[in-house]
Amino acid sequence: MSPLITALCTVLSARQVIHDELRRLAYGTDASFYRLTPEVIALVENEDEVRAVLATAHAHQRPVTIRAAGTSLSGQAVTDGVLVLIGEGFATCEIATDAASVHLGPGMIGGEVNFRLAPLGRKIGPDPASINACKIGGIAANNASGMCCGTAQNSYRTLLGLRVVLADGSVLDTLDAASVAAFKASHAALLSALQQMGEHTRLDTALAERIRHKYQIKNTTGYSLNALVDFEDPIDILSHLMIGSEGTLGFISRISLQTVAEDPFKASALVFFPTIASACEAVIRLKPQPVAAVELLDRPALRSVEAKPGLPPVLKTLGPDAAALLIEVRAQTASALQVKMDAVLAALQGIATVEAPAFSTDSATCEMYWKVRKGTFPSVGAMRKAGTTVIIEDVAFPVASLAAATLDLQALFQKHAYTEAIIFGHALEGNLHFVFTQDFGDAAEVQRYARFMDDVCELVVKKYDGSLKAEHGTGRNMAPFVELEWGKQATDLMRRIKALFDPSGLLNPGVILNDDAEAHLKNLKPMPAAEAIVDRCIECGFCEPLCPSHRLTLSPRQRIVSWRELSRREAAHEDPGQVATDFAYFGLDTCAGCGLCSTGCPVGIDTGELTRLLRGRGLGTVSQQIGKLSGEHFGKVATLSRTAISAGHMASKVVGGKVLNKLSGGAWKKSMPQAGRAPQTRTGTGDPVVYFPTCGARIFGGNTPDEAGLADVVIELLIRAGFDPRLPEGYDKLCCGLMLASKGMAEEADAMADALTSAILAVADNGAGGLYPVVMDASSCSARMQKLLAARVPVLDFHEFAADALLPRLAHRLHKKPGPIALHINCSARRTGTQDKLRQLVSACAEQVVEPAGVTCCGFAGDRGFVVPELNVHALRKIHAELPANCCEGVSTNRTCEIGLTEETGRPYHSVAYLLEECSREEDLPTC
């Protein structure tokens, strides 16, 4: 190990110092098109650890970059020095009693903060498109804004105070009088310099006016010089300079923000215009109106999404010069909303439109409108050629120049042959994003990009005096152009600020200020083709908060980054080295394959598909033969499994559940359910319905010896509700094949699914050319068969059928159960979009439902919870703090998920069928 790594290991635990090649590569990647591989990664959980890392890096004169989520687009979150990842110790959220303010750790995800504020009718001001993935630290450090934020509600404008760790390890809490007093004593020279800098700037009328002018539109180019003219107190100047400083001046360890109202009533209008000019004329008229958002889309942006289902047909008929505005208004009441809609429509009168403007308050319609806007960036990313990078740039113009500037940008696209480029943006602020694809693997292509960027800078700065970076931060991408935009006097101010805070120049060097005129053309990220199913990945990181293995091993983004590197090495005939060895565990063994990543991915990539593909390639002949035999003789496999569970319980009685758990490496669960039993054969006299008891329900029985198995409970409910359950012939020998599919044995899994399909179709045939509905009792199995049988017979997961068919028939006898019931919505229910059906069902049965925040996939993933139990433990690490002490049971819709949840929480989890059965009995219910 290097002296630096050795030194870090003396101040942090071994787990917190990461220096293997695989994770340095994978963890060191951000959403930008730059690639620097850190020398070492330090995972920190508190301020003391941050200070220790800073001191160690300073002693070894190594640069330090402190990163939150890594969704930044301009290269500000990569380094070849020490990369500091902030851990969950910084994920703190304290909401004021009146919810008018919130005190946040930098590790909190922005969307999670809004989730907590929503019941109080509030939210944070910044609303970047990445809010469900990016973290508060990054939002503040980049002064991120968004579609509705504008310039009035960003971090700078809503800042109440912050706590910051400076380069020398000192800590300042601007909301703590004692901390401020101590800092004034210890850092008098720094504060005096800031005070004098502010005074001189304000006295320089031309400079002060220049700074104020630059912030009339969105601007994140360079440091927040407006702090020098907006404030006189050096503490205020310091705190506001930290906003947008991109980790180059210090580390924000806590921030306090004013919250803003989250209006409950909303309406949207998607208005089409024959030309950009007419659309921008409308923007100017809308600027003084009570609008929450006005999004501009040019014709290529609209064309990129016009084929998507559910979008307005008029999209395909628009002329080549057309444009659209997506307008949203919000209010506290329906009547106030109507007033705002009327005002906007009145303002648009007399402007040429393709169709008469009209607002909709229907949530589905509004969601469809926003799909137009949100689908543009991913559409370009999805259609790009393998091996190329999708780039999203971010500029701002005076609103009065928006039409001309948009046309000039379009002309630059044609000049430099970026024919696929699209433009969209936050029109009220003159903020335009343009998206195009770029090949950085070809020197000539890099030079084309350089010429294009030179022309863009000339256009934005020289012709329109706009912002080269409006909301994405300066980063490495625009650092060489800061002086072009601001001029030498203002840029020299920035250089003085950097030198005051970071005299050694070790905090994120090369970001915001960079004297290398070609820095934006160096360290470009390679994007080699790897696998067709993931080549569209833009490495944005939106998938990471949903992934159960993120921060245990790898996230979906990091798996793709790793496999791209291994594919590159293979193509170049390079030795894959230890990266390939480590990838087996970090990349494959600990991937749940749950597919939740696809629900957050802008281009819908399911990295679980890559995992299954690679697992399949890695299987030997023996494994394939075992898989084939398992499929052909599944009845015997199920019997052997039940026998093993019974034997395990016998052993547990002798040595104890904890000892057996330890001896088995976590495979045996202390709360392992009983072995399953064949369900009692019963028939009803009502409407026929096909019920297939999944293998999980057959292999595993109840949580206790006297508890009924899931299949018996489902059959009882179907009969109780007036249905006649019919089981497929030979059901105990059948399986959907998911267990083999997850291991990459696609052919063997499909053979099992085909056998089940034949049995289901046979029993579902009603003899009159129709089919009875089919119900299954495990969400993951139901999702697989729904996909395979979609065109032949409807397959419903139990909770879907129960919500739609059982509740109406059992409503007259339902008794709500007291005491909070924990609800776990597993990954399959989320992916199929049936979670609201599940919530409806549980709410009908329980007086209080607890849905733990921050818990997505439980990580049990079929047999993963037995094979790599640490995945299940890690995935459920946040559930303990979310469950109240008086919550003594939970429900879900997958048997293995319930095993893992029971093990981790110490509370019995069952299928939601148990809850419905109990609440629909005629006798009184017992208390919890």
From TrEMBL:
<comment type="similarity">
    <text>Belongs to the FAD-binding oxidoreductase/transferase type 4 family.</text>
</comment>
<dbReference type="GO" id="GO:0004458">
    <property type="term" value="F:D-lactate dehydrogenase (cytochrome) activity"/>
</dbReference>
<dbReference type="GO" id="GO:0051536">
    <property type="term" value="F:iron-sulfur cluster binding"/>
</dbReference>
<keyword id="KW-0560">Oxidoreductase</keyword>
<dbReference type="Pfam" id="PF13183">
    <property type="entry name" value="Fer4_8"/>
</dbReference>
<dbReference type="Pfam" id="PF02913">
    <property type="entry name" value="FAD-oxidase_C"/>
</dbReference>
<dbReference type="InterPro" id="IPR009051">
    <property type="entry name" value="Helical_ferredxn"/>
</dbReference>
<dbReference type="GO" id="GO:0071949">
    <property type="term" value="F:FAD binding"/>
</dbReference>
<dbReference type="InterPro" id="IPR016166">
    <property type="entry name" value="FAD-bd_PCMH"/>
</dbReference>
<dbReference type="InterPro" id="IPR016169">
    <property type="entry name" value="FAD-bd_PCMH_sub2"/>
</dbReference>
<dbReference type="GO" id="GO:0008720">
    <property type="term" value="F:D-lactate dehydrogenase (NAD+) activity"/>
</dbReference>
<keyword id="KW-0479">Metal-binding</keyword>
<dbReference type="InterPro" id="IPR016171">
    <property type="entry name" value="Vanillyl_alc_oxidase_C-sub2"/>
</dbReference>
<dbReference type="GO" id="GO:1903457">
    <property type="term" value="P:lactate catabolic process"/>
</dbReference>
<feature type="domain" description="FAD-binding PCMH-type">
    <location>
        <begin position="33"/>
        <end position="262"/>
    </location>
</feature>
<dbReference type="InterPro" id="IPR017896">
    <property type="entry name" value="4Fe4S_Fe-S-bd"/>
</dbReference>
<keyword id="KW-0285">Flavoprotein</keyword>
<keyword id="KW-0809">Transit peptide</keyword>
<feature type="domain" description="4Fe-4S ferredoxin-type">
    <location>
        <begin position="582"/>
        <end position="611"/>
    </location>
</feature>
<dbReference type="InterPro" id="IPR016167">
    <property type="entry name" value="FAD-bd_PCMH_sub1"/>
</dbReference>
<feature type="domain" description="4Fe-4S ferredoxin-type">
    <location>
        <begin position="528"/>
        <end position="557"/>
    </location>
</feature>
<protein>
    <recommendedName>
        <fullName>D-lactate dehydrogenase (cytochrome)</fullName>
        <ecNumber>1.1.2.4</ecNumber>
    </recommendedName>
</protein>
<dbReference type="InterPro" id="IPR006094">
    <property type="entry name" value="Oxid_FAD_bind_N"/>
</dbReference>
<dbReference type="InterPro" id="IPR016164">
    <property type="entry name" value="FAD-linked_Oxase-like_C"/>
</dbReference>
<dbReference type="InterPro" id="IPR036318">
    <property type="entry name" value="FAD-bd_PCMH-like_sf"/>
</dbReference>
<keyword id="KW-0274">FAD</keyword>
<dbReference type="InterPro" id="IPR004113">
    <property type="entry name" value="FAD-bd_oxidored_4_C"/>
</dbReference>
<dbReference type="Pfam" id="PF01565">
    <property type="entry name" value="FAD_binding_4"/>
</dbReference>
<keyword id="KW-0408">Iron</keyword>
<dbReference type="GO" id="GO:0046872">
    <property type="term" value="F:metal ion binding"/>
</dbReference>
<keyword id="KW-0411">Iron-sulfur</keyword>
<dbReference type="InterPro" id="IPR017900">
    <property type="entry name" value="4Fe4S_Fe_S_CS"/>
</dbReference>
